[in-house]
Structure formats: structure tokens, C-alpha cells
Amino acid sequence: MDKREFLKALELALQPINKSEREQTLAYYEEIIDDRCDSGMTEKEAVYSLGSIEEITRPILEDAGIEENTQEHTEKVTLWEIIKMLF
Question: What is the spatial distance between Cα 63 and Cα 4, in angstroms, rounded to a whole number?
Fold first, then answer.
């Protein structure tokens, strides 16, 4: 997964949180990817080093008080959106 695909998937998974927090989170991860690429990693290596979308979003959604059922639904939607995005 490249940076664009990763950020799109992350954005979709974070739909339950407010727009401002979502944009801050996306900017944070985009900067991490860019920094790792500047340090010599490929874009795909940098994305892979962050872990899965689920690992990233679970604590964010929990901190926002989003229920687990909502997270599961969001993860399913995200997978479907990723599949659509790739085709």
C-alpha cells in the first residue's frame, strides 16, 4: 500500500470522529511517512512500518468514545472502500 492508499484508508476508518481531529491525525501520519522516506525508506516500507489501519484507529476511536460495534462496521466499510479504490 502506498502513502495515498494508506491515508485514504485511514481517513475512511476515522469517519466516526470529528473532522478536525481526523485531519490532524492524517497530517500526523503523512508527516511520519514523509520523514521515514526522507530517511531512506521506500513509501511502502514507511507505510508498512506504521502497522495496520486497525492498530492505528482502535485507540483513537476508543479515546473518542466510539463503541466497538461501530469500529467493526467502520473496518468492514473501509475494506470495501479500499477494494473499490483499487479498481
Answer: 25
**Is residue 24 scored above 80 in pLDDT?**
yes
Q: What is the pLDDT of residues 45-71, one digit of tens each?
A: 999 999 999 999 999 999 888 865 544
C-beta separation of 64 from 13 below 8 A = no
Of 83, 86, 77, the C-alpha closest to 12 is: 77
The Cα 84–Cα 56 span in angstroms is: 22
Is the pLDDT at 29 greater than 90? The verdict is yes
The secondary structure of 35-75 as a DSSP string is HHHHTT--HHHHHHHT--HHHHHHHHHHHTT--HHHHHHHH
Are the C-beta atoms of 27 and 70 separated by less than 8 Å?
no
C-beta separation of 11 from 80 below 8 A:
no
pLDDT at site 70: 47
